[in-house]
Q: What sequence folds into this?
């Protein structure tokens, strides 16, 4: 939370920078700020920095280097989030480690002190054939039909 507050304050400072020397000082402070993908999205710091650097061309190099560093940090955070989302959850991992076996008769699944959980369930009837399959059957029948001359 503290980093977010500092970043918001620096974003406001960037919007009101009076000269390039002050901008270099703010850029130096921003370099020491711990950033994450969430912080960069909430504060829009890269965009604000880019707009400010356009007003002061002397700081183009420093601003560009900082934005590249932020972009790399952003991509790394997104990669970590994607990796965490793709990996099985801790509950699934724990369940796979425990040798939990279903009873041999699935019609009598009961929790402790509960009635039969499958009682009263009706099996669903088979669905209609897909339209694509029906169309393919008509095409095949047409192609197999004898040619009348």
A:
């Amino acid at each position: 939370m503290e980093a977010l507050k500092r970043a918001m304050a620096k974003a406001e400072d960037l919007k009101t920078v009076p000269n390039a020397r002050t901008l270099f000082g703010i850029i130096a402070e921003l370099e020491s700020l711990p950033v994450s993908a969430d912080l960069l999205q909430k504060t829009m710091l890269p965009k604000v920095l880019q707009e400010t650097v356009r007003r002061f061309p002397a700081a183009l190099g420093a601003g560009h280097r900082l934005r590249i560093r932020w972009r790399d940090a952003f991509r790394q955070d997104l990669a970590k989030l994607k990796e965490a989302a793709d990996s099985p959850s801790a509950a699934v991992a724990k369940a796979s480690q425990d040798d939990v076996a279903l009873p041999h008769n699935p019609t009598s699944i009961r929790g402790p002190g509960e009635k039969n959980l499958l009682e009263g369930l009706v099996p669903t009837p088979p669905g209609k054939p897909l339209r694509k399959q029906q169309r393919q059957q008509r095409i095949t029948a047409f192609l197999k039909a004898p040619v009348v001359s």
